[in-house]
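Narrative summary of target 7.
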Amino acid sequence: MSIRSAFPFLLAIPMLCSASYAADVEPQNPLFTYNISQKTNVSAVITDAETGQPVNNYKITIGEHIPPEPINWYPLHSFAPFNILKNDNAFSISTKASLKKYVFHIAAPGYEPQYSHEWNLDTDKSLWNIKLKPAKNITGKVVASDGNTVYDAQLIIVLANNKIKISGPSFEEFNPTATQKVYHDTLKPLNIYKSDIDGTFLIPPQNEDYRIVALSPEGYQLIEHNDIKPGEENIIKLGDWTTLTGSITYKDKPIKGQLVQANYTLFAPGAIEDAFKPLNVDMRYTTKTLPDGTFKFDYIPFQFVNIVLVHKDPTTGNLLRVKSSLVKVQSDKYPELNFKFEKSMIVGKIVNHDGSPLPSYHSGVISLTSKTPLKDYKASINPDNTFSFDQVTPAELSLAADFSLADHRSFDTQTVKNLTLRKTINLLKGTPPLVLDLGNVPINKPIQEVSTGNTASDFTAKILSDNSSFKLSDYRGKYVVVDFSPAYSGFMFSQIADVNKAYKIFKDRDDVAFFSFVFKNTDDFDMTDPSSYNNKAKWPVAMLDNAADDAATKAFGASEFEAVFLISPDGQIIAKDNDMFGPNIAKTMEKLIPAK
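Modeled conformation, tokenized:
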């Protein structure tokens, strides 16, 4: 059997334990024991700890740690702050960077890997004598289920505290690439090796618990470290992939180019339960539908798989989940998934009013309301501020959200902010898309003039029922509910219902008045029967001709969305936003208006 004499070492493994730092470094990690701030010149010699013979076939990796971030590891040749010269079993480092934030890792076939904190270095000296302990390599052969050897199989070393995510193949290609998913600050690098032309492989010795993930178009396998015998020939026999097919149609028409993902935690072939806890190998394959609406995954294991329809954000390129289905892949049957849609999906991402990103930790629900038919949809706001609505009937829709943001690192309650979002959407009834991407949806810009405690701007309007004049300042001495709604917003009807609950409580009081102001914010919108809005409210309703130009909607910042305000008898705004939203309207008024 031909075994490669050398294997490229890609990345290394940091070992974290308690020890002291140098004088000006916090005592958290023994990897960083240097306190050199000036230009540093170091020479190192690597030898066999038992025989003293030189070790030439070594790889060195550099880890950089800037707390609170985890360690980032770099191949020696690609690390700019260091000038490195290698010569047989020696190397030299010349750098102006302080060594106190770096750790070095040495690995060589036939020797245990070592880290710089194990070298017993005297930092006052410029010569490092590194002695590597001999150990047995991990060798063997990769074979397919039919016994034939497998060339170029990926052999990924997954350490016990690491969680990795393997992505691929992209569309019809099989080219999985592993990226690391960190549990905590103990970030350990990823080591990937490949089998030779005759199926043989060589992996340097490991001194931590690990598993090997073997991936190839010919199959897959997971092997625990206690099933590996260093120094002997280990046969890795791959289990077969299966094929998963499906289709996507919208109103019986095929959907072309829809992205589809297969997500799953990988188990060994035939395994019922993963004994290596925690589960730490996640797979994510992506494909897209063909012109006939069909899709196909060629490399799927025999286990549960989550099939997800995703939408690509045209701005960021990020993928947003819009529909998922958990399926069991069985060896005796290749399941076919047929996604049949009669309604649309609406996706988007909430951003700040100026377009900048919002913090990624928040709590909130976003709602979508249609006028015809009168229907409410609700969705959670995801940690990345994205949202998605499923099974939406084409109609004129109103999007609304009230949610909070806080500093997730400090959990400081003083940083919590209540934010509001209102937007009107028109989902065409003729040929609506399967996925309507709203892109970035900004929250409403706070307007200082309509902050609670400020005096409400005066404005005038015409009451629809009798064409009488309304002027806000005429109602000084009373509590006034001012309700703004776009004329074509389906949300208006549910909002009037919420206002009506408060109206029933206060309708007999002469010191409380209710007014709704219906406006249109597009020139081409035809208000066919304005009186219909007046019939739905038992209090006066006024029409504002143009929201964009109207002084009232400009003053109250309500030219694009629904908003309700409570004005005090002295003309001050005393409640708005979430306090005057939905069922909170009645609750807030009962709290702020003294009982008679």
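Residues 23 and 129 are 24 Å apart (CA to CA).
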